[in-house]
Amino acid sequence: MTALLRRGHVGGDVVREWHHEAADFVGLQEAWPNDLSPDCVVHLAARVHVMRDDAPDPVAAFRATNVEGTLRVARAAQARGARRMVFVSSIKAVAEVDGGVPLAESVPPMPLDPYGLSKRAAEEALWRLGEETGLEVVVVRPPLVYGPGVGANFLQMMDALWRGVPLPLGSVNARRSLVYTENLADALMHCVTDPRAANACFHVADAEDLSVAQLLRGLGRHLSKPARLIPVPTGLLRAAGVLSGRSAQLERLTSSLQVDTSLIHARLGWQPPFAVEEGLEATARWYRATH
After folding, report:
1. Least packed by Cβ within 10 Å: which of 12, 32, 67, 254?
2. Comparing C-alpha atoms, which of 156, 134, 135, 152 is closest to residue 144?
3. Rounded to a whole number, what is the distance in angstroms from the first to the last CA of the chain?
4. Digit-coded pLDDT (tens) for 136-193
5. What is the pLDDT of residue 233?
6. Which residues does the annotation mark as catalytic?
7. 1-141 belongs to which CATH class?
8. What average pLDDT does this structure show over 104-123?
């Protein structure tokens, strides 16, 4: 197995590392090692979790990495013999909320932010490339991914729990799908190796969906830092979001976003090998060891 990295290290003895630091994978095909002929490429790199975006044109910046960069990887891999590309997209390529029905792969995509729009555009570009060249394309759309090393909003929630900060989320009952990193990795291996995955799109998630309040209580339990949740009505939270200019963030926290994973279960026989509690415990163990 070879890991193409822009920075950092994977670690371990079983993974060969290859670094290509050029922005958006420019020059990748020319830099490709002569002795590397992959059968399948799993593409996870993306511009994501930009908390304060100072790019002059955020839409163009997301497209440069998530669309053009993805296509450079796909073309370079196919030129060296790859028959399949597994593309890790995002449920945000479909929607930000579920409208009361878990999101299936057949739902017409309606992405809203630059990240979701770029992921959807990358999916479409890869489907076209596959039709033109015969490259097998598998699209995987995870919801929020958590586990050791997690960042962004999930890490901020853990920081708040660790410090004992009271959180006004005790009445938020809307459920949201999550996926533990080890469950996602297992699903990706199925998509790499199973012939039935060719040219398909799959939604993946843990077996149990949690509300934000349940998630915080579970994390607090594993951190030995009981969640201090204040039962503020959802409508009042949303009004506060409008007044504070954080309406999008509060809408995500208070709205349901569940995904329908029945297709990958039925077609590939995939089931998440780790329970939610196992994922939360591993995440909390990592946090305690690093903070």
Report:
1. 12
2. 152
3. 32
4. 999 999 999 999 999 888 999 999 999 999 998 888 888 999 999 999 999 999 999 9
5. 82
6. 115
7. alpha beta
8. 93
